[in-house]
Design a protein that fits this description.
The chain is an alpha+beta fold and about 400 residues long. The protein has nine helices and 17 strands. Its cofactor is Zn(2+).
């Protein structure tokens, strides 16, 4: 019968889960490990006792023996305790499990790894004209990614050849190393350097892909861009990215949108903005102008949608903005569209003949504006600054 209370040594309850036991060991081992607690003369003994407790409680069979009052160190004829610890499990102490518990790593024992793995995701950028982003488009995209090797079809070997078992690791993908220390025999495993952990080697690697099972290639795909996308939006295409090593499944492809500037319209969220130049007389008297919309650049639009009649009220000033409902950008999520904002820029004539100049002089005299009083405009940022922002 064991005289040690392994639960008390680890500081866990008797019904503690395997994960709780691992966490308790990791927490305490980091404090009493001889390399950490160098000022503690008894650190080696504490660490040995702690490791012994973890070795028992992390093994379901040994833990069951201990819970029944037996001595798990002598179960099934196992020697006299931890080799090198002054008693314990015969045949040496496998330190791999304790390293895993202390540092949360996988120190080998994973077996050979597969040559077939999922490929990485890929990212490409697509430039769109404004009307393509607003109304949607199916866009051809060129993608440079890895594809399955056409010669070996992903196997990595020359046609007709087969992988052979690695003679260095005997197909395990890892090799075992044993080192002597004050803790006993420490056994660790590392990736086999000959087969790189695969457990097999390719006697005749494919000359086309050098054993990778994939090659670089350019391909063309068609991407459906939904209406209402903006710069920075990404379209997700499943399994259109890089093919994985060994011809493994492809990753995903992300198409990032970049909307090019437009010479007439500017987008602000779901709204479109446009500046319309008006003659001074039209602004003063009022008029109706036919404005070409963005639909005029979209071949699928209805003819009646390609222009809109804009009412200009009499006395319209530069900077006046009116909003035309539902003529902006379709909402990417949800129905409806934004608005079309029309800002007027009133233009003063610069070339006048004598008759026109005389008419304007008569108008100015009738309005007592021959020598008007200069009144400074007051407002946030000033009108000129506001207009510059609108026209930039």
């Amino acid at each position: 019968m064991s005289t040690k209370d392994y639960y008390a040594i680890l500081g866990v309850d008797r019904d503690a889960s395997a994960e709780a036991i691992k966490k308790a060991y990791r927490r305490r081992a980091m404090k009493v490990h001889p390399d950490v607690a160098q000022d503690d003369a008894g650190a080696a003994d504490k660490f040995k006792e702690l490791s012994e407790a973890y070795e028992v409680l992390s093994d379901p069979n040994k833990r069951a023996i201990f819970d029944r009052g037996g001595d798990p160190r002598h179960a099934n004829g196992a020697g006299a305790g931890f080799s090198g610890f002054g008693g314990g499990f015969a045949g040496g102490f496998d330190f791999t499990n304790l390293v895993d518990a202390m540092f949360g790593t996988q120190s080998g024992r994973g077996g050979p790894r597969s040559r077939v793995r999922r490929g990485q995701d890929a990212l490409v950028r697509a430039d769109l004209e404004l009307h393509e982003a607003v109304f949607g488009v199916t866009k051809p995209i060129k993608v440079d990614t890895a594809v399955v090797c056409p010669k070996c079809t992903g196997s990595g070997g020359e046609p007709g050849s087969e992988p052979v078992t690695c003679p260095t690791c005997d197909g395990q993908g890892e090799i075992l190393q044993i080192q002597r220390s004050f803790l006993g025999d420490i056994r660790t495993s590392q990736m086999c350097p000959n087969c790189r952990g695969y457990g097999t080697i390719l006697p005749r690697p494919c000359s086309e892909c050098s054993g990778e099972g994939r090659v670089r290639s350019r391909r063309n795909i068609s991407v459906r861009i939904p209406a209402g996308v903006a710069t920075g939006n990404r379209i997700h295409l499943e399994a259109q990215g890089e093919v994985g090593p060994g011809g493994g499944p492809a990753g995903d492809l992300y198409v990032e949108i970049n909307v090019l500037p437009h010479e007439t319209f500017r987008r602000e969220g779901d709204n479109l903005e446009v500046v319309v130049k008006l003659p001074m007389t039209a602004a003063a008297l009022g008029t109706t102008v036919d404005l070409a919309t963005l639909e005029a650049e979209w071949e699928n639009s209805a003819v009646e949608d390609r222009t809109v009649a804009v009412e200009v009220p009499a006395g319209t000033q530069s900077g006046t903005r009116i909003s035309i409902k539902e003529r902006g950008v379709p909402k990417l999520r949800g129905g409806g569209r934004g608005d079309l904002g029309v800002t007027f820029l009133v233009q003063t004539p610069t070339r006048l003949d004598d008759h026109q100049r005389d008419l304007l002089r008569q108008l100015a005299e009738s309005r007592d504006e021959i020598n008007p009083e200069a009144i400074a405009h007051k407002g946030k940022g000033g009108l000129l600054g506001w207009l510059q922002d609108r026209l930039s």
